[in-house]
């Protein structure tokens, strides 16, 4: 039996094309997915990104699905949130071919049930892996069919219907698509809005010739920052490879933290539904639950990861959720993540008043943060325990282990230390009142981690 543990991750399938992932294996994944969802749906909707390998892999997956008697609706080139829209609006399970922000040699599959409900290790992905490892049983009935459907215009119209920009002042916005799927979706979504788009790297190119499509790395937004300053833009937006995440820079070219965006969008959603619940993961700024509470909402803290966010949104009926990684989830979007909808909210808020984005977001940026710092360690458990022992028992210190190790210190500073699921890394996030306090606490914790 093949061992697929190296490519079947917590939330998706991802690997190096030609080494870990090929058409034959992907066909088996398609057949196994069809077996999983056959009792629930008659068809599967499939989309793919701009990577060179994506069309062939998507076709192989479709072949696997139809081999089990289910039909396929192919939407062709799509962002991940466009695939979620198709799954939600058509009420069909879906599969998206993308490796998001990973380098060109990678590809992968994100799967969902009807209504964009996630498929992760605990919700079907482990079962799919087991089926493929043990051998997919043959189906002797009639094969399914493949049809094509273009949902881009419907997707764009749906988003524009959720955020009213008709009263916005004209805005100049630089958009860096990173040669990813933002170059496919932004022109249609922004068409007719009072926004002058200055495009950067809109050419779909899975080799990523300009920079990696990973805006979480500061090196990959340098071009955007420079262009915003050069053209005097009101804001800049950077999308990752599959365009489900969106990062924002202000008119000075300075990054706006995803926590500030989470708080800003939460306030707008709470204005529509007072008293609503807002989800935030435990690495977002503590300013997020403070602001949500101040605006009459109910903040709920959860683990990192879209499957946890979506499950908690379903349990609580939350109207919105945000993560430190710039994933934004909306109840009005089938609880799925869409950076595009978050971007429209930011631009609507900016266009409704005359001040700059830096002034608007200042109210939502209360604390200084380190960003995520990775350390390669030989023994994750031992280093985590060393850090815990160093702080446990100290006066006024609170420790919880909801996701990794979170340590709350007297005076309001805190840090979270989490092990990577796939690499020998520990990930550290620190927040405190000011930059000097962040740097001091970061140095203190890293000395323990890297001892």
Q: What this model shows, in words?
A:
The structure is a single chain. This protein is an alpha/beta fold. The chain folds into 3 domains: 13-150, Alpha-D-Glucose-1,6-Bisphosphate, subunit A, domain 3 (Alpha-D-Glucose-1,6-Bisphosphate, Chain A, domain 3, 3-Layer(aba) Sandwich), CATH 3.40.120.10; 151-365, 3-Layer(aba) Sandwich (Alpha-D-Glucose-1,6-Bisphosphate, Chain A, domain 3); 368-449, 2-Layer Sandwich (TATA-Binding Protein), CATH 3.30.310.50. 35% of the residues lie in helices and 23% in strands. It has helices spanning 23-37, 54-67, 80-90, 125-134, 152-162, 182-189, 222-231, 258-272, 287-294, 306-316, 339-351, 357-362, 380-391, 435-449; strands spanning 13-16, 43-48, 71-77, 94-97, 106-113, 117-118, 146-148, 171-176, 195-200, 235-239, 246-249, 255-256, 277-281, 298-302, 320-322, 328-330, 336-337, 368-369, 373-376, 398-400, 405-408, 414-419, 425-432. The strands form 4 sheets. Strands 1, 2, 3, 4, 5, 6 and 7 form a 7-stranded mixed β-sheet that branches. A hairpin with a 6-residue loop joins strand 10 and strand 11. Helix 8 packs parallel to helix 9 and helix 8 (258-272) packs across helix 11. The model has no long low-confidence stretch (mean pLDDT 96). Its cofactor is Mg(2+). Belongs to the phosphohexose mutase family. It holds the Pfam family PGM_PMM_III. InterPro entries: A-D-PHexomutase_a/b/a-I, A-D-PHexomutase_a/b/a-I/II/III, A-D-PHexomutase_a/b/a-II, A-D-PHexomutase_a/b/a-III, A-D-PHexomutase_C, A-D-PHexomutase_C_sf, Alpha-D-phosphohexomutase_SF. Keywords: Isomerase, Magnesium, Metal-binding, Phosphoprotein.
């Amino acid at each position: 039996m093949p061992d697929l543990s190296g490519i079947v991750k917590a939330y998706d399938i991802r690997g190096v094309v030609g080494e870990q992932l090929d058409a034959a294996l992907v066909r088996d994944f398609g057949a196994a997915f069809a077996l999983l969802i056959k009792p629930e749906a008659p068809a599967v909707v499939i989309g793919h990104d701009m990577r060179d390998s994506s069309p062939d892999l998507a076709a192989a997956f479709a072949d696997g699905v139809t081999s089990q008697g289910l039909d396929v609706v192919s939407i062709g080139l799509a962002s991940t949130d466009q695939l979620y829209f198709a799954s939600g609006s058509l009420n069909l399970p879906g599969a998206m071919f993308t490796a998001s922000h990973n380098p060109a040699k990678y590809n992968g599959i994100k799967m969902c049930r009807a209504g964009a409900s996630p498929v992760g290790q605990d919700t079907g992905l482990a079962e799919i892996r087991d089926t493929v490892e043990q051998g997919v049983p043959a189906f002797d009935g009639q094969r399914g069919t493949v049809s094509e459907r273009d949902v881009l215009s419907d997707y764009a119209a749906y988003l524009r219907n959720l955020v009213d920009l008709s009263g916005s002042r004209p805005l100049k916005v630089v958009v860096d698509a990173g040669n990813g799927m933002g170059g496919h979706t932004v022109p249609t979504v922004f068409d007719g809005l009072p926004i002058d788009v200055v495009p950067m790297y809109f050419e779909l190119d899975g080799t990523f010739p300009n920079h990696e499509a990973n805006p979480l790395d500061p090196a990959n937004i340098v071009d955007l920052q420079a262009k915003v300053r050069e053209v005097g833009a009101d804001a800049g937006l950077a999308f990752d490879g599959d365009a489900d995440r969106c990062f924002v820079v202000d008119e000075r070219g300075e990054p706006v933290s995803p926590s500030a965006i989470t708080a800003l969008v939460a306030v707008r959603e709470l204005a529509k539904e007072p008293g609503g619940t807002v989800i935030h993961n435990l690495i977002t700024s503590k300013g997020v639950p403070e602001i949500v509470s101040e605006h009459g909402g109910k903040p709920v803290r959860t683990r990192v990861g879209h499957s946890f966010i979506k499950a908690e949104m379903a349990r609580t009926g939350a109207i919105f959720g945000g993560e430190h990684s710039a994933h934004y989830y909306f109840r009005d979007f089938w609880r799925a993540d869409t950076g595009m909808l978050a971007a429209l909210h930011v631009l609507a808020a900016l266009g409704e008043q005359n001040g700059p984005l830096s002034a608007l977001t200042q109210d939502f940026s209360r604390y200084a943060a380190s960003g995520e710092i990775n350390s390669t360690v030989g023994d994750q458990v031992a280093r985590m325990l060393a850090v815990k022992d160093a702080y446990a028992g100290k006066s006024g210190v609170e420790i919880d282990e909801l996701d990794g190790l979170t340590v709350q210190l007297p005076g309001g500073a805190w840090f979270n230390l989490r092990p990577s699921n796939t690499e020998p890394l520990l990930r550290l996030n620190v927040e405190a009142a000011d930059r000097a306090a962040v740097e001091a606490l970061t140095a203190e914790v890293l000395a323990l981690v890297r001892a």
